[in-house]
Predict the 3D structure of the following.
Amino acid sequence: MGGRFAGKVALVTGAARGMGRSHALGFAREGADVVINDVCREIPSAPIPMGRRDELENLADEIRQMGVRALPIIADVSKGSEVKDMVEKAVNTFGRIDILVNNAGIASVAKVVDMSEEMWDMVINVNLKGAFLCSKYVAPFMIKNRYGRIINISSTEGLVGTPGMAHYVASKHGLIGLTKVLAQELAPYWITVNAVCPGDVGTAAFHMYSKAYPGFAEEISRLQGAYSLFPGYEDFEKPLLEPQDITNVVLWLASDEARYITGTAIVVDGGFTSK
Ligand SMILES: NC(=O)c1ccc[n+]([C@@H]2O[C@H](COP(=O)([O-])OP(=O)(O)OC[C@H]3O[C@@H](n4cnc5c(N)ncnc54)[C@H](O)[C@@H]3O)[C@@H](O)[C@H]2O)c1
């Protein structure tokens, strides 16, 4: 099968649904074999349900129907031993990992004075430690091949701060720091490392979080102004961006066209953070 990623292997974390699913399908459509990961179990103190096993398996079937290989792996990216086993299984099956998309993410809402230690740890561990662990265990195989692409899914919350989301904001700022350091450590091996910072994207999770915290989006909009420079964004139920808007940038960063782009954070937010 031809395509920009023919012969490549991509690992996408948090792929059972939402943007991760979209990225995985995007890589498969363009010829990559894809390792799709999700936690597929409930995480204590997470305000919404996590991706499910049947969603991950259905995605694997959809990918295989495109004529490429799919390997679903259930693992919690915040647990070192599970990440190590996942990477070993992926390399034993496909022989290599060329592209890693650290997409798995989680959020909740509480002001710092009301935030439990458990809630802080949950968000930092999945969003930031998870990307550290996946990079740590995948990078040695990329180093061996003198080739790799690591793409960390940060957020506009990696650039600005929203009240009620200190843990999430710290994790997404931290991801940009991790990106900069990894880019320097891995450039000698022709591995690029970049972050992508989406604004609000209308995934099912976005709507679940909106329901879990009624009025939160409106409150933030009041504090920060509209989320986009484009018209029609005042409807909180329907964010401007779709998963494919982010997938397009993720695929481009993973492509040869972006071979000398490293250590950057690319913002896809309809202009929100320009204000
Ligand atoms: N939706 C948005 O508006 C938005 C905006 C900016 C950034 N982001 C980021 O984009 C990424 C994807 O967001 P989404 O809207 O598609 O969310 P989502 O909840 O639909 O997808 C995230 C997936 O990650 C999985 N996951 C959670 N914890 C995990 C763990 N420990 N190990 C493995 N998988 C785990 C979940 O089960 C879920 O399937 C996240 O990192 C999120 O923070 C989202």
The beta strands are 9-12, 33-38, 70-74, 99-102, 148-153, 191-198, 265-268.
